[in-house]
Amino acid sequence: MQPDISVKHLSKVYGDGFQALKDINLDIRRGEIFALLGPNGAGKTTLISIICGIVNASSGQVTAAGYDIVKDYRKARETIGLVPQELNTDSFETVWNAVSFSRGLFGKAPKPAHIEKVLKDLSLWDKRNNRIMSLSGGMKRRLMIAKALSHEPQILFLDEPTAGVDVELRRDMWEMVRKLREHGVTIILTTHYIEEAEEMADRIGVIRGGEIILVEDKAQLMTKLGKKELRLQLQHKLDKVPGELTLEPIELSEDGYELIYTFDSQREQAGVTRLLRTLGDLGIEYRDLQTRESSLEEIFVGLVHE
Ligand SMILES: Nc1ncnc2c1ncn2[C@@H]1O[C@H](COP(=O)(O)OP(=O)(O)OP(=O)(O)O)[C@@H](O)[C@H]1O
Description:
The protein is α/β, with parallel strands linked by helices.
């Protein structure tokens, strides 16, 4: 299947000579949720802005739903909805008018039934006649999404969709994004909340210093790079890790009451069996044990600081 977005050999050098993107190659599949992660200044906004036609590329090629974003700009842009970080609409306007106007900007004929559906899906229907300035922060966020969906785009970009949003609204937004995906919309989101990517994404791309350093299925990323940790709470205090165990990646907690063994998720658990057997041989008793997998956040921090 043809990807919904195809980025080939894309580079961007800003006017001051700064190279923000270096030979980016990336395919986004139709109907997936793709999370683009990267530290501040990595180039996420630059990449999204180029795909959305807001910033010009220095070299390379991008297509959206098969349309070249330069040669077929209008058609490409029509397939894309962009939810920016901040709302820029006349605050005296009503919700209904703001969303209808957004649709008009794409030269699409009015379709009140669609606007009604979008507003209802986003729980903004009751507020349709309210002026924007009377909306709460969370409602304004939803309005930005409604505006982006007004022209029925196939692809939706969400730039930091839940920055500064409370936990409840964040959950609501995740639910809503999932619903959009169920309806076949391709979703690309940038986020600083790794938890958000872990919760939502089908695939994850990591960008650092203007380069894509990794693109992977989330589940595979978690098993490939993830580590597991086994913690054993000991009956009796130890002063140091017993000599028989020093070849293993094992540590003793500061209070001497816990042994912490770290191993690759991918590898079989032979090490755990060996460890437990050795402890038995040494007569070291434990009260309890827990295992824990590393979160995407830990994996991510490891990646960007390599
Ligand atoms: N108009 C510009 N002129 C010169 N340099 C720019 C311009 N816009 C962005 N940059 C630089 O390009 C790099 C990438 O910026 P970009 O905004 O794409 O990063 P980002 O990954 O979106 O960061 P953040 O997470 O902080 O939003 C940064 O070093 C930034 O200073």
